[in-house]
């Protein structure tokens, strides 16, 4: 009935079957006179999603999570993952070959300094680590009396005989009716930022920044319309975009050449070297620029100025065209979500549906809009205990049947040309328990607290994060992820620099779009998350002595009333939910078939 075109459910290679690769790597390291090697989960630009040709960590270890790092020594090896992936790593990795260690506390460098011996040589690929990461590795090696060695070619690539070729997806022009601002205007603003930095030029090492600045999109990585590329923007004169010419049509090449020189990626190093030889100061993004770039600039006599890429903040503040496009994308998405939730309610009680069925159905309803370009990330559909795994991804092996008494957590998103969506709903199948109702209502109250927040201009996400957790904290509960992340405009569903979390220090500016997604997870029991996207807007507060901001909710999908413990809600919270549901009903009802209209009327009835 349904199918998924943008997602797969294959079980990755894992465990003992990969031990031959570890042996081959050690042989290659010995041939190069190296004692060990660091394998990050990264490409040259530190992208969240990487092309198959860059999945060195997964190929070497079997671990497929989005964050991790392995250190292979001759005697032993370790895989470092954060708390989200501890359970997953234990299932995917051969525990006899790799010890699974924490990624954050203590960091991998601590393990390195304890396990390397004096005189040993640890290799790393300077194109896959930022300069700051390389410095941390060097410090750990020095502590052990060992040496950190930058390799010219990656030893994993040498032994990976069936390594896929680099991606060559065609580049498309992101029309001004979606971007709202021509490249010339964006470049003028970028050059002003370069001047403020006191730099002669800026390297755009983040493909998101290149895509935004030059109004192009692509499909080189999964779920994010990125054309892998670099750019060099001088304080004066024409910028250069470095991109594989095979990705360019006559149309996209002509578009780029109106505002920039277009050269092959291998032309970047010589051009940077020439600029550096004149003693230029060249700004680099410390979050995405490879250590190799800093080394190249400094060794040629230039000055590598590391800091935040100014494009990141420019891109995060959406203009009126992007905002109206995002609103349209969410209204379109709302119809697909209503059809899906109605279908789940009809079909799930039979006990015949599985998590994969839910993923395939939701993608199909979105494809029915006629505007879906991709999902914005692999759908998380976890029922019962799988819902408690925060970054769960269903495979044919883990696929669980949706049973009566379960909570089904569905976290999903869509890429439309006018906007990117991300939404989570938790659905009761059968009768929820008193514990489920209590936890769900605490999460809902936190969600409403963020949605209703009014705050002074300049407030950071860290200052708001507590609002989402307060009702869970009152019961001695919490959740281990941030409350919200930034979202791009037909770009990454996870966009910096702003976020709502204890680490969110960037002030929230009007025009930013962030998620609002508190949750609760009972290990081996159930998971709860409620997520809408929010737009930062001006708030009209009578008598206010300073500019005030608030959130406009962009996402429209019913929140399951059956799990709400109404007596726990304040009158204001109940009013918010009733008003929200009335808005969902008004926006969506006229676009549904009769049976779905009846479902929507019940799902959005006032409490």
Q: Notable features of this structure?
A:
Creatine Amidinohydrolase, Chain A, domain 1, Creatine Amidinohydrolase, 6-stranded mixed β-sheet, alpha+beta
What does this structure look like?
This protein is of the alpha+beta class and about 600 residues long. It has three domains: about 15-160, Creatinase/prolidase N-terminal domain (Creatine Amidinohydrolase, Chain A, domain 1), CATH 3.40.350; about 170-310, Creatinase/prolidase N-terminal domain (Creatine Amidinohydrolase, Chain A, domain 1, 3-Layer(aba) Sandwich), CATH 3.40.350.10; about 320-600, Creatine Amidinohydrolase (Alpha-Beta Complex), CATH 3.90.230. About 35% of the residues lie in helices and about 20% in strands. The strands form eight sheets. The chain has a six-stranded mixed beta sheet, with helices on both faces. α4 (about 110-115) runs parallel beside α5, α11 runs parallel beside α12 and α16 (about 435-450) runs antiparallel to α17. The two termini are about 35 Å apart. The model has no long low-confidence stretch (mean pLDDT about 95).
